[in-house]
Amino acid sequence: MIGPLESVLYRDGATMMERHGRRVAAHFGSRPGEEAACLKAVGIADRSDRTTLEVRGDVDAALLELAAFGERAWSSYAEPSRAVVRCEYEDTAACLSALGSDARDATREYAAIAVVGPNAEALLDAADLPSSAITLHETGLLWEVLVAPALGPVVWDQLLEAGAPLDVACVGLDAIESLSVSKRLRA
Prior knowledge:
alpha+beta, Alpha-Beta Plaits, 2 domains, 5-stranded mixed beta sheet, 4-stranded antiparallel beta sheet, 7 helices, 11 strands, 32% strand
């Protein structure tokens, strides 16, 4: 499946790979360089390899059920009676089950961009994100921005432009996963 960010990923030099039936950037030329950018400044990455769930109704009760997942699932209120949940692909069925009948898979309805590193919050503050964007704090120095697929490339470019003074870098999943495994971004 072609992802909503694929055109800008190729343009910016990504080497693509398939993950869970979705095409994502493996790297942009140098995994060590991309890791360094995330540790020293800020990186942006396509996270369409993950699942996006939407919960409506008694959102508070549904989200309480996610506590057992710890850092494997995170959420944000999109409005008082609607929340968006993100999880790793392999946790999709378990998260859906925990959230109950008011939850559904909404992965195809969003482009997901990770914003990673000590300058992540500054980049999110500087970027002129659309009012429809949903920002989720995963943990530590890891954030995600969800937008409609058609807005994905526009928001990617906005993050690159706003992040230039912050030394933003395009980052692939190889670097993100290496850093996440080592827990260096959990600070």
